[in-house]
Specification:
Blueprint: H1 2-23, H2 25-39, H3 43-53, H4 61-74, H5 78-95, H6 100-105, H7 120-137, H8 140-163, H9 174-189, H10 196-223, H11 230-242, H12 245-250, E1 262-270, E2 275-284, E3 289-298, E4 304-311, E5 317-318, E6 320-324, H13 326-371, H14 377-391, H15 396-400, E7 414-421, E8 425-435, E9 440-450, E10 454-461, E11 467-468, E12 472-474
Parallel strand pairs: 1-10, 9-11, 9-12
Antiparallel strand pairs: 1-7, 2-3, 4-5, 4-8, 6-7, 8-9
Length: about 500
């Protein structure tokens, strides 16, 4: 009877897992619909679709919150986006301040029934996206704070990984350093030449630019990163303004008292980040299967692969260059982690394999008992189901086991940068998102107010929607001009996630 009792518990657990998986079908379908809406740039409907499922399962809180934040940022609701990102940041902090060993034990091999804690690069992007949002609304100080946090958190996390026998090659984020430098320098432009505040900000920019260049050079080949062409020029400009005559004379370059200028900086997210698929290694002894599942990133099909910035009359275009290959980072980090945790996963699979062998013997015994009507009605039915599964060679454990394929899917595949210098004023521009064959997928009209001795930041993300998009405004608004975000101005922060 003890055998029958244990079999009953095992089968009920299996049925519960199947039931939970079945209950997630609507969640999966809704998320698939949500991503199609994001790809087509229908951000209003995408928000509503995510509201239907977001926050329904506590284990999905992080991914639901991050996706909502990105949709809000894509639609120009930068302040609201940061509210969601702050929630995500607080949750991440709570995940990694308790049960650290348990958390790290499943990194790179999470089960879909566990709380999703994010990939390394996703946790970086929580702060990076906040920094980008702050740049757009002109809060340079908060942008610097968020950008600086990226590498501080990454350093701590890398150390935690090492203490748990996992080594990560992605130990520094050059894009975060670069954003920090741009924000520092933009702040310095607003200060009087030679003032202590200006020199403090310029020195912060100098340090950030140097760190960015070091990380681009150190990580570039492995993660597809290369320093943008402006980085060395930015560093040269702040060094000249910090003005140590002796050092400058050694390199044959003079100091300059005021290196400020007027500029629009474009940071454009194109495509969609690769998504996770469940993969498995399967071994068999002729009766039972030994299954190990793992997640693997695959390209997400999108129409947009590039972008360019042109004047409205099409007379000229600004140079553009990649600054952050997020998709390449995701794929590479995942492969690194998979190689290192494979042995742990195999050990776990071996334990399950042994349990399945024991369960098969118990199922056969229970099936015989059921045929003799020795079990109760419900137990007999369940045991009969088990016997049928066994005779058909079906493994319940294999049927329901799947790698965790959750991820922050609304992130772009890569970020591109373009820069435009000129006299102050409102510029009529176009951001053209380009397909693989060079054709224009869609055009976003941009009105950017280039301020005197300062930087205006334009952050946009591509969609696959064909044709023109609505005009987007960046920089200080002319008197009387108010921009309406897509979908009007209802309060998106209504507690539904």
């Amino acid at each position: 009877m003890a055998v029958g009792k244990h079999l009953f518990q095992w089968l009920v657990a299996g049925i519960l897992v199947v039931s939970v998986s079945g209950g997630c079908v609507s969640h999966i379908d809704a998320r698939r619909q949500f991503m199609e809406q994001v790809k087509e740039g229908d951000y209003v409907q995408a928000r509503e679709t995510l509201y239907q499922v977001g926050g329904k399962r506590k284990i999905d809180f992080l991914v639901d919150t991050c996706d909502m934040a990105m949709v809000l940022s894509r639609s120009g609701r930068y302040t609201e986006s940061n509210k969601f990102l702050e929630r995500a940041d607080q949750k991440i902090r709570s995940y990694f301040t308790k049960n650290v060993s348990d958390v790290l034990a499943v990194i790179g091999w999470n089960e879909s029934s566990a709380t999703y804690k994010g990939e390394d690069f996703e946790r970086n992007m929580v702060d990076i996206l906040q920094a980008l949002n702050y740049l757009v609304v002109g809060n340079l100080e908060k942008a610097r704070v968020e950008a600086a946090q990226v590498n501080e958190k990454l350093k701590d996390f890398v150390m935690m990984l090492r203490r748990n026998g996992i080594h990560s090659g992605f130990t520094g984020d050059p894009f975060a350093h670069y954003i920090s430098g741009l924000a520092f320098e933009a702040g310095a432009m607003k200060e009087p030449p030679g003032s202590d505040r200006r020199n403090f900000l310029l020195d912060g920019a100098r340090i950030s630019y140097i760190r960015s260049r070091v990380d681009y050079n150190r990580l570039g080949g492995r993660y597809g990163l290369s320093a943008p062409p402006w980085l060395d020029m930015d560093l040269e400009n702040v060094q000249a303004q910090l003005c140590n005559p002796k050092e400058r004379s050694e390199v044959g370059r003079p100091c300059i008292e005021d290196g400020a200028y007027s500029e629009i900086v474009f940071l454009l997210g194109v495509g969609l980040i690769p998504h996770k698929e469940s993969r498995k290694w399967v071994m068999s002894d002729g009766q039972d299967t030994f299954v190990v599942t793992y997640p693997e990133f695959e390209d997400t099909p999108t129409r947009v692969t590039n972008a360019r910035v042109v004047f409205n009359n099409g007379s000229s275009s600004a140079r553009i260059s990649m600054v952050y290959d997020l998709g390449r980072i995701a794929v590479t980090v995942n492969k690194e982690r998979t190689e290192q945790v494979k042995e742990r996963a195999v050990a776990r699979g071996a334990a399950r394999y042994a349990a399945k062998k024991a369960a098969r013997l118990a199922a056969q015994a229970a099936a015989a008992s059921a045929r003799n009507n020795s079990g109760g009605g419900l137990f007999g039915a369940i045991a009969g189901l088990a016997a049928t599964a066994v005779s058909a060679g079906i493994s319940i454990a294999e049927a329901v086991e799947v790698a965790d394929t959750r991820s922050w899917m609304t992130l772009p595949d890569k970020y591109l940068m373009s820069r435009l210098k000129g006299p102050p004023g409102v510029y009529d521009l176009q951001v053209q998102f380009i397909g693989a064959g060079g054709s224009i997928v869609n055009t976003v009209p941009v009105k950017a107010n280039m301020v005197a001795n300062g930087r205006t930041f334009v952050v946009l993300h591509s969609s696959d929607a064909m044709g023109p998009r609505r005009t987007r405004y960046f920089g200080p608004r002319p008197a009387g001009q108010v921009e309406t975000a897509e979908g009007g101005e209802p309060n998106a922060d209504d507690g539904r996630i």
